[in-house]
Structures are given as structure tokens and as C-alpha cells.
Amino acid sequence: MPDAIFAEPRLAAIYDPLHRDRSDLVVYAAVVEEFGARRVLDIGCGTGEFACMLAERGIEVIGIDPALASLEVARRKAGADRVRWIHGGAEEAPAVGADLAVMTGNVAQVFLEDDDWAATLAAAHGALRPGGVLVFEVRDPSRRAWEGWVPERTRRRVEVPEVGVVETWVELMDVSLPYVSFRHVYVFESDGATLSSDSTLRFRERDEIEASLAAAGFVVREVRDAPDRPGMEWVFVSERGE
Q: CA 1, 240, 215: angle at the middle one, nearest 5?
């Protein structure tokens, strides 16, 4: 089941205004250009920001996500009518002969169980054409990013158009590596409503990820440093093998 931040309509509607800095998507757009991709599968597309960005550049895009509320936001965006939207889990990604499959925004860390992660990689492999490329990012566990997921470092008040001021912060709930659980809290000042979204991410080690990719039939071509978060994340670039 998707986290409330993506599945609860009132929270999905404010996701983009609360995450205005999407420089990470500029990085992925450059990857699309680097590989000359003309058909892209966006796994865990969320509110469709990246999918619509590519569609407006003439790229054929298939966006898949299990959170219906997020997809409803996506379908209202410019360029959305040129995207094929699929409501479903990553393991349901269709065989579309994509040149490139991506998981942006640390989507790869939401698959907590090995079986779910293996199913996701298998679906990505099946969705790509021979020689197609899978690109995704994960946080480096040694950098302990979760230490900053506390109210005193994340609290902010944002004026959201047509909604009003929303105060939000993050609370670290549990660290039992490789699992880290945390809570996003949102207070709508217009009516005092408080909504929360609990999340858990899995922090896999680099060799563990490489082994899982090989088991799924991928050849790891490169592990890059994330240019938008230098030193904090790995970007895996893998090619579909036969």
C-alpha cells in the first residue's frame, strides 16, 4: 500500500508545491538525452512531474504508480495527455520495449522485501528492449541521511496556492538497519487539520544491489555519484542482458 503522502488526496495535491526543487529530475532528463532514449518507463512516477517533462520534449513515456491520488494529480498537468498512465505496482510494468527505465526520488528504496525488489527488477528487465538501460538512485547507508530527519532540521511553513499555509516536518521513528522508519506531519493552517504519513525505506549496501541486478539479468555498467546530492547517493546504470 502506498504511503499516505502519495495516496491521500489532500496530501498528494500539495506534494509538488512542497517539493519545488526538482533538480534531481534535471539530472534524469540529461540521462534520457545521454542514452538517446525515445521511449521511457517511469517506475513510481508519483505526481508525474518527470513523465510530463519528458512528454513535452517529445519523448514517449509510460508512467506507473500504485497511488491513484498521485496519478490523478499527474493527469491534470501539461503534457499529461501524451503519457500512458498505469495504476499499479512496479511489478506490473508492461513489456513495452523501452529504451530506458527509471526510478527517481529513491523509489528503489521503498521495496522492503527481497521478493518485492526482485519482482520489480524482473519487471523492469521485461519492460526494456534488449540493450535497454535501467537507471535508479539510492542513498548510501554510510552517510546516515536519516540523522537529519528530525523536526528541528525539517520544520518549515509553505504558502500553497489555493490551500494556504501548510506547516510540515519529519520525525524519525525507528532505525533498525537496513530499515529506517519516519513520519511526515502536515498541519493545514486554514482549518487546523493535521495529517501524517508513515514511511519505511530499506538501505541496501552497494554490493547487495549489484548482486540483485545481476540475478535479474542486468549488467551494471556504472555506479555514479548523484550530482544533485554529491557524496550522498549512488546512481546505478545497468543494461538489460539476455
A: 65
DSSP state at residue 39: E
Contacts of 58 (CB under 8 A, 6+ apart): none
Write the CB contacts of 71 (distance below 8 Å, at least 6 apart in sequence): 45, 48, 63, 65, 85, 87
Q: How many CB atoms lie within 10 A of CB 66?
A: 19
**48 close to 19: Cβ distance less than 8 angstroms:** no
* Per-residue pLDDT tens digits for 195-226: 999 999 999 999 999 999 999 999 999 999 98
How far does CA 127 lie from the centroid of its chain?
18
Helix H, strand E, coil C: the string for 170-188 is: EEEEEEECCEEEEEEEEEE
pTM above 0.70, yes or no: yes
Return the half-sphere exposure (C-beta side, CA atoms, 13 A cut-off) of residue 170. Answer: 16
Rg, Å, the chain Cα set? 18
Q: Confirm if 74 and 105 have CB atoms less than 8 A apart.
A: no
CATH, range 4-138+205-240: 3.40.50.150
